[in-house]
Write a structure and sequence with these properties.
- This protein has two domains: 116 residues, no CATH class; 66 residues, no CATH class.
- The model has no long low-confidence stretch (mean pLDDT 89).
- The protein is 33% helix and 5% strand.
- The chain is mainly alpha-helical.
- The longest helix is centred in the last third of the chain and has 20 residues.
- Strands 1-2 form a two-stranded antiparallel sheet. A two-stranded parallel sheet has the order 3-4.
- The protein is built from six helices and four strands, in the order E-E-H-H-H-E-E-H-H-H.
């Protein structure tokens, strides 16, 4: 539910605003659930980092197979990884109605729950509880040694403490501090 409004299905695709040669969905507002209301928080603009992945045909076929044949919300079993020639430790097709797994810096650790693709930076940011007004800057991905020079968007989101978690911890600490000053 957290990313349903960012699905490709039924949306118009336009040229990506910040990445030449890529596309993104033409964002339109939907009737929000309580989480989307929190993420939108009266933001009337268009969230950034909506760039859609460009997968090879074989990758889309592999993701389609996974979505059709594997349990959503669970890491792929060893036999499926072997059959598909996947050497990754973890690949999880998301479930639309279950909690998402821990967000990482690798966009291909998770597969969208209904579309054969990885998630956009904005979708991962939503899972991390970043509000839609928050902008990510820089390259989307980098490889190998270039990560020492650039911190790509997927890495920015994957390495971040989720804002709602940080707020909850901060609130708890304030309560502890106030309680310690009463005595």
């Amino acid at each position: 539910m957290a990313i349903r409004d960012l699905e490709i299905t039924g949306k118009i695709q336009i040229d990506c605003e910040d990445s030449k040669g890529f596309s993104q969905i033409k964002y339109r507002k939907v009737i929000p659930n309580s989480y989307l209301s929190l993420m939108r928080n009266n933001f009337s603009g268009i969230p950034n980092s909506l760039r859609l992945p460009k997968h090879r045909v074989e990758t889309v076929e592999r993701f389609s197979y996974i979505l059709k044949n594997c349990t959503k919300g669970r890491s792929l079993p060893s036999d499926v990884k072997e059959k598909l020639g996947l050497k990754k430790q973890t690949t999880i097709p998301l479930s639309p109605n279950r909690l998402a797994p821990t967000v990482t810096t690798n966009p291909d650790d998770m597969i969208h729950y209904s579309e054969p693709r990885t998630l956009t930076v904005r979708e991962i940011a939503r899972l991390q509880s970043f509000p839609d007004w928050f902008e990510f800057k820089g390259k989307y991905t980098t490889g190998g040694l270039r990560r020492k020079e650039d911190c790509p968007r997927y890495t920015q989101v994957g390495n971040a403490v989720p804002p709602l978690l940080a707020e909850a911890i901060g609130g708890f600490l304030i309560t502890l501090i106030k309680a310690s000053h009463v005595n």
